[in-house]
């Protein structure tokens, strides 16, 4: 069955590593402007699902359709160009560049990191940098060297660098790890803002944070879906309590 009503349709997705199925016949649909959170015990397959969607890992079977384009046949670069952004756990920003420059180099038609003499700082780039800086709460820090930002601000900057490319699907792996309580709240607000015009998939263990952001939660266990639905329903699911929340 091919479904065209979803931004992302994952169907019967499987990946085996030497016979071990890290993701096992997974079927999941993500709506336009949905914020979905993947939870589950260590080793459940959460990171592997994101690796499969962004093309870092190739599937053994099944399909991943993004706006009805089959992603399993595309390279990582082609997947990025099709509108999928992925943030890994550790921020990978250019520490010696300013916040402004980090955002600027992330603009799809912007200059490369090593600079291009022909690059002109167009109004479109400037406008986009300022809009994204506002979204990620770094307007006051645009001229600051990025190395001087707090850990949380570096995470936001990396989210901003992805936003510069206007992805239609953004995937974030444990975005609040290592953040203060205040930064977690600010990140929840940030994610609630950015999913207003794109879909977002977040992997997260902090259930208080999940409550603040999730439209729906998918609980993975041994590469399969154990439960899926709104947070309150998932939280009271006996199977979920037994294998995950009760620990
Ligand atoms: N490239 C690989 N080769 C072999 N095994 C792998 C590979 N990638 C993942 N795995 C295995 O697949 C399983 C799922 O791992 P994954 O990292 O997706 O889990 P997770 O749910 O993200 O866990 P965590 O919460 O600890 O990050 C684990 O048993 C892991 O060891």
TrEMBL record:
Entries under InterPro entries matching the protein: AAA+_ATPase (IPR003593), ABC_AA/LPS_Transport (IPR051120), ABC_transporter-like_ATP-bd (IPR003439), ABC_transptr_urea_ATP-bd_UrtD (IPR017781), BCA_ABC_TP_C (IPR032823), P-loop_NTPase (IPR027417)
Keywords: ATP-binding, Cell membrane, Membrane, Nucleotide-binding, Transport
GO cellular component, one term: plasma membrane
Domain ABC transporter: 8-247
GO terms of molecular function: ATP binding; ATP hydrolysis activity
Signal peptide: none
NCBIfam families (alphabetical): urea_trans_UrtD
Stored PANTHER family: CONSERVED COMPONENT OF ABC TRANSPORTER FOR NATURAL AMINO ACIDS-RELATED, HIGH-AFFINITY BRANCHED-CHAIN AMINO ACID TRANSPORT ATP-BINDING PROTEIN
Protein name: Urea ABC transporter ATP-binding protein UrtD
Organism: Methylophilus medardicus
Organism phylogeny: Bacteria, Pseudomonadati, Pseudomonadota, Betaproteobacteria, Nitrosomonadales
The encoding gene: urtD
């Amino acid at each position: 069955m091919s479904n065209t009503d979803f931004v992302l349709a994952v169907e019967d997705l499987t990946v085996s590593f030497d016979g071990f199925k890290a993701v096992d016949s997974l079927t999941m649909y993500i709506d336009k402007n949905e914020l979905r959170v993947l939870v589950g015990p260590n080793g459940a397959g959460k990171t592997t699902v994101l690796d499969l969607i962004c093309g870092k890992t190739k599937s053994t079977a099944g399909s991943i359709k993004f706006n009805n384009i089959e992603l399993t046949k595309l390279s990582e670069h082609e997947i990025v160009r099709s509108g999928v952004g992925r943030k890994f756990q550790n921020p990978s920003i250019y520490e010696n560049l300013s916040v402004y420059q980090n955002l600027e180099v992330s603009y799809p038609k912007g200059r490369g990191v090593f600079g291009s003499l022909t690059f002109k700082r167009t109004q479109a780039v400037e406008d986009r940098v300022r809009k994204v800086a506002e979204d990620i709460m770094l307007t006051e820090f645009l001229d600051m060297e990025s190395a001087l930002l707090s850990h949380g601000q570096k995470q936001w900057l990396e989210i901003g660098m992805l936003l510069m490319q206007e992805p239609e699907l953004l995937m974030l792996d444990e975005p609040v790890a290592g953040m203060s309580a205040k930064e977690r709240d600010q990140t929840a607000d940030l994610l609630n803002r950015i999913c207003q015009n794109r879909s977002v998939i977040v992997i997260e263990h902090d259930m208080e944070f999940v409550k603040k952001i999730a439209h729906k939660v998918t609980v993975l266990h041994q590469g399969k879906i154990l439960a899926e639905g709104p947070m309150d329903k998932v939280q009271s699911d006996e199977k979920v309590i037994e294998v995950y929340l009760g620990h």
